[in-house]
Design brief:
globular; Nucleotidyltransferase, domain 5; 113 residues; alpha/beta
Length: 113
């Protein structure tokens, strides 16, 4: 019975935290911050649902790295070669050293290539 209560509490915590861009892992009892960025073909940057410029993105990624978070990255037309603008944004992201997970589209549901 106690295990069922613990499992239920963990499920509720996971659902509550995932909506605030934090995920509770099973192996750790700490929260892990995840930010999501989507880059358009012209280099338009959407970070966590908000349009930002490259300088703002770099500042937010420094904060993300400082707390040990991960960036979920996706771009428009991900099945083709990136545009020069998308490549420039990706290089900026890589230069920050933040861990990156690649996704196929703006839904962040399917792994990238």
């Amino acid at each position: 019975m106690r295990h069922a209560r613990v499992a239920a509490l963990l499920f509720v915590a996971l659902v509550a935290c995932s909506s605030s861009r934090e995920v509770v892992t099973r192996s750790h009892s700490i929260a892990h911050r995840i930010d999501k960025v989507f880059v358009g073909t012209r280099g338009t940057i959407v970070l966590n649902g908000t349009f930002v410029n490259a300088a703002a993105l770099k500042a937010e990624l420094a904060k993300l790295k400082a707390v040990g978070g991960t960036l979920w990255y996706s771009r428009e037309n991900s099945t083709t070669d990136p545009t020069d603008a998308q490549l420039a944004v990706f290089k900026l992201i890589v230069s920050t050293g933040v861990p990156i997970a690649l996704f196929r589209d703006a839904t962040f549901t399917g792994p990238g290539q």
